[in-house]
Batch of 2 targets.
Target 1
Amino acid sequence: MTATALSAAPATSRPPLRALDGALAELLSHAQPLAGTEQVSTFDADGRVLAQDVVSGLQVPPQDNSSMDGYALRCADVATGVALPVSQRIPAGQSGASLTAGTVARIFTGAPIPVGADAVVMQEDCAVQPDGSVLIQSAPQPGQWIRSAGEDVARGAVVLSKGRRLTPAALGLAASIGMHVLTVARRPKVALFSTGDELIMPGSVAPQDMPPGAIYNSNRFFLKALLTRLGCEVSDLGIVPDNRAATMEALRGAAQSHDLILTSGGVSVGEEDHIKPAVQRLGHLDLWQIAIKPGKPFAYGWVDADAAQGAHFIGLPGNPVSSFVTFLLLVRPFLLRLQGVTEVAPKTIAVSAGFTWARADKRREFLRVKRQPDGSLALFPNQSSGVLTSAVWGDGLVDNPPGQTIAPGDTVCFISFAELLA
Ligand code: AMP
Ligand code: MG
């Protein structure tokens, strides 16, 4: 062999390993928020991303009101042993008159505090006398059982900011200031493909009739569910036909009407499949080896539909757990950013490990773990990237730095699936 032949990189050489943080930053630099907003009913806006600040036109609560059923009074009027006459009755939804000195007002939860009263005594602490007057049996403190006007929301306050993903509680807060319609980012349109000649769709072949070497396409199912949870409109384009022309046609068609084309499988170096060369012909494709386990191979690119339009392309690894974890770590923040979400990093918490991890890896690892009743973490025994059981058994990931072993009692960095899948 000549020196030239030795130094030339073989066609299938692996791209260098890259750190996750750098890869994510580069991926996010491509995720410009999508143009276009939508007006949706607050009732139907769960999970959508606000495209405008929500500003309150009123204060909440609108006025001081009672947080108990009981009696509104002036603290100064309460002298031990003296019953006070009831001068008015104020149910929720009505406003009373000014409180006459030396009297109490019968009041109910949510009813406005009458002018002059400075406390509410709950009815359990009062004894109604035969003549109808009320003996106050506990010394009231000024302000007790009163919810102050504006204590929740001040007039003019930004209660929900642009770029925030709406939760059920956020919908309630928006409704509490009278917002029945919200301006949100439009949903990303995602085309989902699977690749791999070994794949069989569940339902098309019974388990006992599966040919040797065949496996069911599991990735399609969790990827579709993950995309839907993240607010996407998903087109399932099935398994890509096994020839170059059909693959290019399918990709070009998808790029016309989608924001992202997502595939799983076939991004390992050296693998023969049609997606990679087709994406390269129609746009561009960068193959990355990300230094994480599971989940090393990853591809980002762009598919031109025509001169004016196109779609992002993301290729996930085929191994189910790699595909699942890579989606959560990279595709999730990408899709949130397309919708204009500002905070895309998942919250991590420091938790005590309840297990031993003796085999440190040179890659950053994401171990499937479960929280124990004592607050420590248990480890799923098989951390192989093909074992999807680990992701169902587990309720989150330990983000373990490269070269790090773990002993029971060590503090580790935990990311819950609840956080990632919300
Ligand atoms: P690949 O990334 O295509 O080399 O695939 C890696 C491994 O993942 C192989 O064992 C594939 O059979 C498996 N795999 C690829 N795609 C899927 C899929 N959609 N569902 C389940 N397993 C898959
Ligand atoms: Mg494959």
Note: Confidence is low (pLDDT under 50) at residues 1-11.
Target 2
Amino acid sequence: MTNNRQQKTINDLEFLFGAAILIIVALLFLWWRTHERAQAQARQGAEHAARLHALEQERASAQEKLAAFTHITSDGIVQVDANGLVTYMNDRARDLLQVTNRVERPLREVAWGYDLQPLVAQVLSESGGATSQTIVKDERAFHVQVVALGDENKRGALLGITEVTELQRLGRARREFVANISHELRTPVASLQLLADTLSEDVLDNKELVTDLLSRARTQIDLLKQLTDELMDLALIESGQAPIRLVSIFAVDLVNDAIAPLRPQLERKQIALETHIPPDMEVLADPQAIRKVISNLTHNALKFTPNEGRLVIRAVWHNQGADVEFSIQDNGIGIPDKDLPRIFERFYKVDRSRTRAAGDLRGTGLGLAIARHIVEAHGGKISVASVEGKGSTFYFTLPSGE
Ligand code: ADP
């Protein structure tokens, strides 16, 4: 009996023990599952967070790049929405369009007078796409490109604005330069052709005529040589290949050396030349280059002064002795006021009839442009004062020497 009870108790205990084990195993299993799921969720969460972080970084970097791009680009950038309201514009666009007011206003108002609206309307319309046009305002030229942004439901437009004023000016200058050279070459070449034709006819016995024709041919050849020499000078100076080597030199020596070759022409025209230059005055100059300046200015003065005229070359200290100012004064035909601002331009001649009046001493229109380049390369300034019919005075400055 006791044994049976004991046996039952043992069975009960075994059952309880077994049940307990099962419960523990089930609980362990449940815990493990929950733990696994939590870990998977945590892993997913971490991956998600990392993806978000990477996306955020990508967005920030793209935004940074865009900001840097719109900052450094020399183009103006303007964004407008579907209603034509400006939503963004970089500083360059503000500069170019001279915008002082806030954005978020119609493009028509923000960029008043630039006529950009039709371009934007074109790309904002159904067709979308892109368009471009060159717009001129207040003598400035702008190349404007417009591209559509977004889709049909939410369209906007991006404008890129590039100033092309300088580019157009350079293009024009190049075309004018070529036209001017051709023009300057045509006259002496045509004259030489005519002289050669005349010589080839039966005139060789007429010694006087032959001498005259040859002398005229020499004049035309001199003119061609002057043109090619001056073109070469200008090309070297403008490309920076004619470096200025400054030395301290007496002003009087510079002037005397420069005018020596012109003495025969001065005598032929019976032009009186005075020089007023302190003998101890020194300047810092590239002697060869400055001799060219003095010679060009003096040559012009004698060219545009009638026979028996008067030329005065002076040099005075300026700026408490820091600079020296040279002046070359004539009492010739003078220069009309309207031409004064342009005479230092390449190929500029006041008018062709006056130039013809200079007879054999016709010029190329390059002398003053070369003189200006040389003086400015010395850190000096060149200028002119003139009264038509009375005469002209050309001034230029150089730094003082020792
Ligand atoms: P050019 O070779 O024709 O003399 P420059 O460049 O030296 O060319 O001068 C430009 C123009 O300026 C001349 O064609 C002339 O019309 C005018 N000019 C220059 N110097 C004088 C002057 N001393 N008197 C009158 N006109 C001058």
Note: The chain has eleven helices and twelve strands.
